[in-house]
Design goal:
single chain; 154 residues; alpha+beta; OB fold (Dihydrolipoamide Acetyltransferase, E2P); 2 helices; 36% strand; binds zinc ion
Length: 154
Amino acid sequence: MMQSQFWKHVLSLALFFWLVCPMFSLERPPDAANLVVNGLLVCLDGTFKETACGAMPELLGLKVAGGTIYPLKEHENVQALFLEKRLQTRQFRLTLRKDDAASPLFELVKSQLIRGGKLYDFHYFCEVCNITTHAPGPCMCCRETTEYRESLAE
Ligand SMILES: [Zn+2]
């Protein structure tokens, strides 16, 4: 009796990982409305003006050549650009999207880092679940530590 309970538990757990975990790794499909911009990560104040960065800035933006600033909608993937020291850069190529025309904020679709004039992809990888994420911290599925990885972009 106890044993069948145990196997039922194992089975439902396996089903959970099989069904739920792949959803985390799904990338958004490419979209013609997406905007790809190269620039410098800056901290913004409440009026979207560039300001000195605190320990945990409220608002981040990407400042491109010419001075235009794209304010970024708050997301853990956006915060990772500021907090992740292993990136060793403030230069990024970001793919952005504006879902709400009335809002000045841009949603981050994809981020790549620029270091020494070269473009790199970066992500966090969980070996247990074989999934990638774009923000540091434990794996969303199994809570194991994820591994930071980067590679030269094609
Ligand atoms: Zn995992």
